[in-house]
Amino acid sequence: MDKHTKALELDKILEMVAGECSSADAAELARKLEPVHTAGEAQWLLQETDAAFVAMAKFGAPSFYGMKNVTNPLRRAQAGGGLGLRELLDIGATLRTIRGLTQWWSKSESVRTALTGRFQVLAPNKYLEEKIFTCIVSEEEVADNASPALASIRRKIRAASQRVRDQLDKLIRSPAHQKHLQENIVTQRGGRYVVPVKAEFRGEVPGLVHDTSASGATVFVEPMSVVELNNEIRVLRSDEQEEISRILLELSGEAGSFADSIIESYNYAVQLDLIFAKAQVAYKMKAVVPQTGEDGKTILHAARHPLIAKEKVVPTEITLGDTFDALIITGPNTGGKTVALKTIGLLTLMAMCGLMVPAGEGSRVSVFRHILADIGDEQSIEQSLSTFSSHMVNIIRILQVADSSSLILLDELGAGTDPVEGAALAQAIIQELRGKGVRLACTTHYAELKAYAIQTPGVENGSCEFDVATLQPTYRLLIGVPGKSNAFAITQRLGMDPRIVDQARELVSRESNAFEQVVGRLEEDRRKMEDQLETLRASAAKAQQSAQEADRLKEEAEAQAKKEVERARQEAAQIVQKTRQRADALVNELEELRRQKNKQLSAEQKARLRSGMKDLESSSDPVHQRRDDNYVLPRPLVVGDDVLLYDIDKEATVLEEPKDGMVLVQAGIIKTRVPLHNIRLMSKRQLKKKNPGRTVTKSVSTPEASSSLDLRGQTVEEALMEVDSFLDRAARMHLSQVTIIHGKGTGALRAAVQQHLRRCAQVKSFRLGTYGEGESGVTIAELK
Asked: For 96-117, what is each residue's pLDDT tens digit?
């Protein structure tokens, strides 16, 4: 990693990626990531990261735990060498991880993504994986069932060991040897079973001495009676080791036969581990995939420096290379100029490494061949270079490398020397770099460079906003606005004697004062325009909300109107049906009279026919257009008056004053114009008390008023439902007492009814019937 990318702190971002990797090789790859230099490569890397990001959001992250770099053991096995238990276990763990990755992808993949090819290359080997874990228990032990021969040998070893222990147990329990033994235990020395004998009784227990205690008081003797059995165990142990070696060599050969496939799958798994680590970093940064290009245009919305804490970082808008190719950032110290400079370079480098950037949707970065930065103080005592000299050395090197595909970032350009010379040198450097076609962003305090940016096409001012009232920077980068150093204001706010500050202001040249005043007015105008813009945005949001509310009310009115129309249609259908029934009745009566034409109609029959005709007319036209010529409005109508539409007996409210004999009213949700002669001005109280004009009534069938209910023959559930309905009807009819007939029987229905009556709100009290009322076969309930 060169000094320019380090100056922009890309190494710290790559260390964050390495920290998210599960395998050591993936972490090492992350630390060695280098930016690509074409938009196509960058876009492909970003697509891979985005595919991992989306897959993690939907299905969770896959597990890369357990992967080890087994390339060297596999190559050795491929060449015919034998592998140890630990190496074979690492191969098995790697195969298990690879198989887990393919299973995760098979469950989560629904469409082809940028990662599909990498997952398809993975080649799990369940056969070898299971064989390794079946044969090897741990890095110190091979399983008994690794081979039939090994299982047989170990059975023989256990049997021989048991016989030796039995012999020695008899010896240590023997009364003849109790005093000769240091402890009544059986132990091992050099893989042979022995007993601890006191040194002074060494000759009393015939056998071979294998060891002596540190104090010399105890010797460990292998009694002669078990020497042959120990020899047998030693031979069996040797056979066991030979069989284990054969098994491991066989497993090594199998692993070597699959070496190329396993190594290739491991390398792709490492790359996937790195890609998902990038996605995990993007998730923590709340990053997005930027658009990429090679035209030098950088447009960052709500850009955040990824190394600043989330609660402290301030999103900012940054543009470079669109309408201007050079950005000169000014403003007070600690105002965020260097952070803005680093944000441009670091986010560009991140995108070129395939990392999503912490910015808003729609952001765009350009891919450059060179990103060159001179940031920070690189004073070198060893090379006898001052701060100014070290900056100039860096800038000279940058000038030698820079071309039309370069992004140049210069911090405090021209600082560290005479201000006049420094400003002139800075301007000359900017002109030279622009002549090479670079994209340039630099920070400075020189007023001459602010004026240069205002006067030169393709060069734009930028400033880091600073609130003088609070002496706090806002860290917002404002494009197109030159910044003020605010040195006088800050010094005075910190407590400097105003007399000294005023004297300093007088010492500043008239041109500098005039320029600062212009900048100050520009800043004030900008703030006013921002306030106006905020007000306009609030008004627009309010208007949009009002429009949405109006649309909602309109939809509700339309829905209500549809309901009213449907209700009117149903009422009309009922009227038509009643009219048809009455007409049919009249036709039948006339037909009957026709058959009796020789008979003369009686006065009663004629009256009935005339009444029927009038009823037919009335039912077929429920809205009577009739006028009360004697009615006169007591006063002129005004907006808000409560009136009655006389012909349809409907309450309404006046919306507009009368005009040309008509008035606009609203009845319910319907607005309509009606003639004045159809209006009756009345108060709400009168409207409730009086109901002039024709009223439309509906016949409602009511149950016969009865004060008794017979439940005999019903189940408990059916009876209780009937009781609830009966009590509701009785309450509406204002009955004070009712009788519930449940019969005597087993008494179950009576108990259920009386239990239910205790919970009924309408019941005040109840009792069984007396003689003549039905006795225990009925319950008399008194209602509230």
From this structure: 999 999 999 988 766 788 999 9
Structure token digits, residue 459 = 């060069």
Q: Which of 671, 651, 674, 672 is nearest to 661 (CA)?
A: 674
| Cα R_g (the chain), whole angstroms | 51
Which token pair is 625? 């257009």
Is residue 359 within 8 A of residue 304, CB to CB? The reply is yes
Distance of CA 646 to the CA centre of its chain: 61
Q: What are the residues whose beta carbons fall under 8 Å from the beta carbon of 154, sequence distance 6 or more?
A: 144, 240
Rounded mean pLDDT, 228-251: 90
Q: Are strands 459-467 and 472-479 parallel, antiparallel or unpaired?
A: antiparallel
Task: Return the closest-CA partner of residue 205 out of 158, 155, 246, 167.
Answer: 167
* Bridging pattern class, strands 316-320 and 298-303: antiparallel
pLDDT tens readout for residues 436-447: 999 999 988 887
Tokens at 123, concatenated: 């080649």
Whole-angstrom CA distances from 715 to 718, 719, 725, 751, 777 are 5, 6, 16, 13, 16
Tally DSSP H helices, then E strands, for the chain: 22, 25
Whether pLDDT at 680 is above 70: yes
Q: Which residues of 572-600 are buried (b: 16+ CB within 10 A; e: fewer)?
A: eeeeeeebeebeeebeeeeeeeeeeeeee
Q: Quick one: pLDDT at residue 180? A: 77
How many other CB atoms sit within 10 Å of the CB of residue 515?
19
Percent residues over pLDDT 90 in the chain: 34
Which stretches within 32-147 are classed as H helix?
39-59, 71-78, 85-108, 116-121, 126-135
Give the integer Cα–Cα distance in Å for 145 and 722: 77
| Cβ atoms < 10 Å from Cβ of 9 | 18
Mean pLDDT is lowest, of 208-222, 474-488, 745-759, for 474-488
The arithmetic mean of pLDDT across residues 405-422, rounded, is: 86
| C-alpha distances out from residue 603 to 243, 488, 595, 598, 612, Å | 131, 116, 18, 16, 14
With contact defined as beta carbons under 8 Å apart, do 778 and 768 qualify? yes
Which residue type does 454 have? I
Tokens standing for 98? 């690879």
Tokens of 560: 């209500």
Neighbouring residues of 716: CB distance < 8 A, sequence distance ≥ 6: 748, 749, 752
| Rounded distance between C-alpha atoms, residue 186 and residue 208, angstroms | 15
Q: Residues 377-394: pLDDT tens digits? A: 554 434 445 677 888 888
CA-to-CA separations, 725 to 34, 707, 718, 719, in angstroms, rounded: 83, 13, 11, 10
Average pLDDT, integer, range 191-197: 86
Tens-digit pLDDT profile for residues 515-556:
555 555 565 665 677 678 778 888 888 888 888 888 888 888
pLDDT higher at 606 or 69: 69
Q: Which residues pair with 765 in a beta bridge?
A: 782
Residue 501 in contact with residue 492, Cβ under 8 Å? yes
Give the β-pairing of 370-374 and 406-410: parallel
The b-or-e profile of 659-696 (16+ CB within 10 A means b, else e) is eeeebbbebeeeeeebeeebbbbbeeeebeeeeebeee
- Per-residue pLDDT band at 624 (split at 50, 70, 90): very low
Q: Give the closest residue to 236 by CA, choosing from 201, 191, 281.
A: 191
